[in-house]
Amino acid sequence: MTSPIELDELDCDFKESVQESTPEANLDLCLTCGACTGGCPASELLDMDPRKLLRMVLLGMDDEVRKTPWAWVCTMCARCFKACPMKINIPKLVYSIRKSWPRDKAPKGIRGSCDQHIRTGNAMGVPSKDFIWVVEDVAEEIRENDPKFKDLQVTVDRKEAHFVINQNSREPVTEPDELGPLWKILHTVGADWTYPSVMWAGENYCLFLADEEGWKYILEEFVYHIDNNLGATVVVNTE
Amino acid sequence: MQKFNIPHNFEFTSIITLYAQWIKEGKLKVNSDWNRDLKIKFTLQDPCNIVRKTWGEKMADDLRFVIKTVVGEKNFVDMIPCGTNNFCCGGGGGALQAGLPEQRRAYGKVKFDQIMKTGANYVFAPCHNCHGQMEDIGEFYGGNYHVVHIWTIMCLAMGMLGENERSYLGPDLAEFGL
Ligand code: SF4
Ligand code: SF4
Prior knowledge:
The complex is a heterodimer. Chain A is mainly alpha-helical. Chain A folds into two domains: 7-101, Fumarate Reductase Iron-sulfur Protein, Chain B, domain 2 (Orthogonal Bundle), CATH 1.10.1060.10; 108-236, no CATH class. Chain A has helices at 13-21, 35-38, 50-58, 62-67, 79-83, 90-100, 108-120, 128-145, 170-174, 179-189, 205-209, 212-230; strands at 163-166, 193-194, 234-237. A three-stranded parallel sheet of chain A has the order 2-1-3, with no helix packed on it. Chain B has a domain at 31-79 and 90-164: Rossmann fold (3-Layer(aba) Sandwich). Chain B has helices at 15-24, 51-71, 101-118, 128-141, 150-157, and strands spanning 11-14, 42-44, 122-124, 146-148. In chain B, helix 1 crosses helix 2 and helix 3 (101-118) crosses helix 4 (128-141). The longest helix of chain B has 21 residues, at 51-71. The complex binds iron/sulfur cluster (SF4) (2 copies). One iron/sulfur cluster binds at residues 40, 42, 50, 74-80, 90-91, 94 of chain A.
């Protein structure tokens, strides 16, 4: 005969650790209504869904929870969170699961991008001087080829520019011609802008890896550069 | 920054918000005349990061305002659902680099079906993850749509898109305005 689950005797270490770090995650309030699962494109993949995952957390199935690769299939898109009548923060829960993974077991692609970003300021690992070279080269080409833009100015680290622009590193690195259209628009409106040479890329893989130390380091370096070296008023992300 | 309580002296914004503001102020003179007769249909992916997770309805509105200005109200077809309720493309949260392509594509099937139902030839992707994912699922499931950046179509509309800046355009627009 099967015996009933004694709720008082459950060991829910993982749940407690999440509750401690994010009290607003409200894990205990789940009604099992399924609104989260019904609207989640990751439901049923790897035989998992958000309601089930939460149930496993609440039942103290910590080993299974900590190990499920589904934590990397869920995109932390927060659609479930928006739909949840009890405001249970499933993406935060998934983030906590990612954080509990040993760093060397986390997906290589995400880890590599986070490492590159810490080291070089962008997920593709391109040195700042190469970034600056590409930017100047593409700008020169536009000035030469298009008389409408013979005065196009593109700068890196220009002090006191009003806007500092963060751009996804894929553009300068793998498709530099995609830089032009944005610059032409900025030129047309007469925007006073520059790129930063430090932590210049817009992406954030350390957040996806739940590597808070790395993520914080990137932000601190960026903020220091903007506030102390450049003095811009507004930081603009292009996505 | 909020998360780590890092003090800073600047504010944050998105290029989309600036496009909307510049159009309203008359600094960015762009319109949809180029598409009046062509009637090319466009749809839009609402990136979770800037829409649902950061700026909400305001960003959803700014995106639509900018896009409708550039392609024409009648040539814009929203996905269902859309805005803050749109589905994630399936490439977010690092999924494109998570080494689980089979699951990522199964997730993306939802997005693919949404795109196909709009009947649009072009999808705006104001996010690199979305861009990469929608191109991949388009190829994988046999879609016939093209994924574009807003700046590409904006420059096209203003007659300033260079020959080498067209790699994401389909044959119908590859030479347009050259
Ligand atoms: S929507 Fe919220 S309350 Fe309903 S099952 Fe999901 S987590 Fe539980
Ligand atoms: S955050 Fe994760 S669980 Fe929630 S809807 Fe998005 S993919 Fe599904």
